[in-house]
Amino acid sequence: MLPPRESRAVRVVWRGAAPLQEKPFRLVAAQLPVDLKNAAADAAAVRFLLRFKAALYIRPAAAVKSDIRAEEARLLPDGRLRLTLHNRGSAHAVLHGPQLSLTLAGGGRAELGSDVLKPLEGENIHAGRRRIFILPRPPQLSVNAEIARSAFAYDGKF
Length: 158
Fold this sequence. Notes:
Elements (H helix, E strand, L loop, with lengths): L22 E8 L20 E8 L9 E8 L5 E7 L5 E2 L4 E6 L4 E4 L1 H4 L6 E2 L4 E6 L11 E7 L5
Antiparallel strand pairs: 1-2, 3-4, 4-9, 5-8, 6-7, 6-10
């Protein structure tokens, strides 16, 4: 616990073995609602509490890279698109400029860009993990369209 107007520097150090792929952690520092004075029981008060969150990643000594693939894309009975993305790489990826190419069972194609995939913008996918996204029905697809294959692309920056 820190007295008012005090500050402390915090250093976080990884002491484990070197990982084979990036390991994600979350650092959370919170201000606790501690009242050191005896306040009147019926007094009204407003408290502003601060909460700090930061993502930390432990990386192996070797180079790391994300590799996001569309594992599954299909229309749900209500017409929405269920998209499963899998990061087969060794580093997390924050999605920017997502694009999805769909090959339909009937041989047609549909290209989905930022207009349809806007909910994916800025989403984080950790190394080795899958994320499922439910998106509104793309206007390029009929309600009963069957998706045979899908290919995902994005600006591959951390």
